[in-house]
Amino acid sequence: MRLRKKNYWAITVITWVVLLIVWQLVTMYKITPEILLPSPEKVISTFISLSKNGYNGIPLWYHFLITMIRLLSAVALAIITAIPLGLISGRIKVVYSIFDSIIQFIRPIPPLAYYTLLILWVGIGETSKVVLLYLAAFAPIYLACISGVQKVNSDYVKSAESLGATSKQVFFHVIFPSALPDIFTGIRTAVGMAYTTVVAAEMVAATYGIGWMIINASKYLKSDVMFVGIIILGITGVFLDQLLKLIERKIVFWSGKS
Amino acid sequence: MKKTIRILTLLFAFLLVLSGCSNHKNDPKKVTEVRIGILQVPNDVAAARQLNYLSSYFEKKHIKTKYIIFDSGVDANKALISGDVDFATMGDTNGVVAMSSKIDAKLIWVNDVLGNNEGLVVRNGSGIEGFKDLKGKKIATPFASTSHYSLMMTLEKYNLLDKVSLLDMDTQDIVAAWNRGDISAAYTWQPTLTPMLKNGHFLITSEDLRNQNRVTANITLVRGGFERSHPELVTGLLKQLNRTHQEMQTEPKEIITAASRQNDLRFEEAKSQIGTSKWLTARQMVKQEFMSRKFQEQLYITGKFMAQQQTIDHAPTKNEIRKFVVTKYIDELGDK
């Protein structure tokens, strides 16, 4: 059975509508206790009251902003450091041999495993939170850069060189642009990785942030607030990814066309 | 068509999972295992466990005893909701949270009325001499705990509520932050206090607050379903705990030794960690109208304060508290 594009969209929409209806029904007929699954109305009214009165005396937008600042500054830091290092590692074998094994070692460790250590090292302030997110974001960009450089068609490099391009020119005019689509994929993965660690980062000694709000609400068993926080994180995550896709399409418009 | 069926199947599965969440409250007729949520402190449960009071009682009934350690009442509450524990010891503030979020659980026992085993410690040389000096300082405490409540009450009394920065940390994180010098004060409980008192001193303890009629205590909750179907086991368990409370008053050495062994502490350590906390026997509780009146008043004050701080949605009413605190078990024990 073949469906047109429009119909696929309809299926997605219907799925969500059905999910919402099931949610509504389950809570209406009290199949589960309120504490396990608050009703949609309750979640909406909690969202409205949070937007008006804030959580724990701090406005909701401020919680959101703090979380985003932590996330984006970590990603920005990762972009600034991982792209050059990744590109150079892809090009120069010595640099690759120095850094790659270290990064491969750190990459698979779950961030929570070394978070307590980070707190001992850099304290409970903003630094430990940003560093945790940074470590999560670094590896995807670095690895994407390496694979991007290695994938560059060697004919391009050779023809540029035979036309008399210096190695600097080759790097900036041939290698960098060809690796750009991969770099973008890396950045998108990095944002995703950092995003999944954002709640963990706000677990210790935070006093604001959406992740902190969810954890704090769980201590007082306020499942409605937890739902609001989780939904906010979900929507923002989708939105961030779409935004990155859009930027990618603008900057590397040639991607997938060569 | 296939797709629709698949989606429907998925939704059905989702519904099943949801209904599964609520199902395991139905107790089987026969209990084969009793699960007790404990705090890692030298208290009556630790002593009763070490002296095999609990296990030998339940063994006679062919029931296994399983202990589950919680860092604070926060996780114990979650386990009560999901039905993963039958009894849980926690601070009374977590009891108020449980009550306010209408968890199916009852308060049946007061393990100990807190004394100097909880308190506000300030770092020596941080320039904090009195409460006014706390202004602008970083103070850590585990949120939702009795310590948090005691700290907030103290801050309110000295008009400092918005003038300090409060950090929510687990007890182990507090010690780490203290050692690094990230915080200059913390309201917490033993055993965390001991290492901090090496380079710090008390500004106020829960004993002082107790004398100002702000009582905090560790309490035991029982899961509602368990209490309804097996009240005789509740009585049996409390009888064993009461035994440790009686012996604590007649031969404290033995009880403290037992509690210290259970927590891998030296006798002196356990003794100082228990400090001036009070272990009331069932008879004393009945005589002083402790659970039937005094402690209920304290729960009411606590609930009102927490609601005012917006940590819980609504303050439990006196009627709700009366239903939450079940006194028939200690009445039964106290008469004997």
Strand content of chain B: 15-25%
N-to-C series of helices and strands of chain A: HHHHHHHHHHH
Order of helices and strands of chain B: HEHHEHEHEEEHEHEHEHEHHHHHHHH
Strand order of the largest sheet of chain B: 2-1-3-10-4
Count of helical stretches of chain B: 17
Explain this structure to me?
With 258 residues, chain A is an all-alpha fold. Chain A has helices at residues 5-28, 40-53, 60-91, 93-106, 111-122, 126-150, 154-162, 167-196, 198-201, 210-219, 223-251. In chain A, helix 3 runs antiparallel to helix 4 (93-106) and helix 7 (154-162) runs antiparallel to helix 8 (167-196). The mean pLDDT of chain A is 87. Chain B has 17 helices and 10 strands. Chain B has a 5-stranded mixed sheet with strand order 2-1-3-10-4, sandwiched between helices. A 5-stranded mixed sheet of chain B has the order 7-6-8-5-9, sandwiched between helices. Chain B is globular and about 60 Å long. The A-B interface holds A 1, 11, 14-15, 18-19, 22, 26, 31-37, 56-57, 116, 119-120, 123-125, 204-207, 212, 216, 218-222 and B 1-3, 7, 11, 14-15, 18-19, 21-22, 74, 77-78, 81, 97-98, 101-104, 140, 143-144, 162, 165-170, 173, 176-177, 180, 182-183, 310-313.
Descriptors:
heterodimer, A: 258 residues, mainly alpha, MetI-like fold, 11 helices, 79% helix, B: 336 residues, alpha/beta, 5-stranded mixed sheet
Write the layout of secondary structure elements.
The complex is a heterodimer of chains A (258) and B (336).
Chain A: H1 5-28, H2 40-53, H3 60-91, H4 93-106, H5 111-122, H6 126-150, H7 154-162, H8 167-196, H9 198-201, H10 210-219, H11 223-251
Helix pairs in contact in A: 2-11, 3-4, 3-6, 3-8, 3-10, 5-6, 6-8, 7-8, 8-11, 10-11
Chain B: H1 2-23, E1 33-39, H2 44-50, H3 53-60, E2 64-70, H4 73-82, E3 87-91, H5 92-100, E4 105-113, E5 118-123, E6 138-141, H6 146-157, E7 165-168, H7 171-180, E8 185-189, H8 193-197, E9 200-205, H9 206-211, E10 217-223, H10 224-229, H11 231-250, H12 252-262, H13 267-274, H14 282-287, H15 290-308, H16 318-324, H17 328-335
Parallel strand pairs in B: 1-2, 1-3, 6-7, 6-8
Antiparallel strand pairs in B: 3-10, 4-10, 5-8, 5-9
Helix pairs in contact in B: 2-11, 2-12, 3-11, 11-12, 11-17, 12-13
